[in-house]
């Protein structure tokens, strides 16, 4: 059956669609360490111990990127991040990725790992990169493409 952890990673990063919301406004609730947004179907709540960072986003329009997953009690959770909305480049930029494959270094640049944001979260890069690596190098196995066999 293989490693359950690897299977969970494969499913999380390849089977769940990511959420890419633009211009979502925080509800500006009086709770100092919390942001809350409505996506139309769900409410998203973000909490942090860093009140200074949270205050930068209070009442502002944000872009939210992440992957949601189910939690206990019909809750949904999200692995993702937020950036201030409206800070875009004129065109998308490809984010270069350094890879080591069978001991050889190569840098890749692809539309699959790209953004038009001036500031991008680590979570957005992580999600797009892992999806690309699974598609091209089969890092979690079982993608039925035959790719990745030569990488061991």
Automatic annotation (TrEMBL):
It comes from the Bacteria. Residues 8-83 form the Staphylococcal/Streptococcal toxin OB-fold domain. SUPFAM superfamilies: Bacterial enterotoxins, Superantigen toxins, C-terminal domain. One of its GO terms (molecular function) is toxin activity. Residues 94-148 form the Staphylococcal/Streptococcal toxin beta-grasp domain. The keyword Signal applies. Keywords: Enterotoxin, Signal, Superantigen, Toxin. InterPro entries: Enterotoxin, Staph/Strept_toxin_CS, Staph_tox_OB, SuperAg_toxin_C, Superantigen_bac, Toxin_b-grasp_Staph/Strep. Belongs to the staphylococcal/streptococcal toxin family. This is Enterotoxin I. The lineage of its organism: Bacteria, Bacillati, Bacillota, Bacilli, Bacillales.
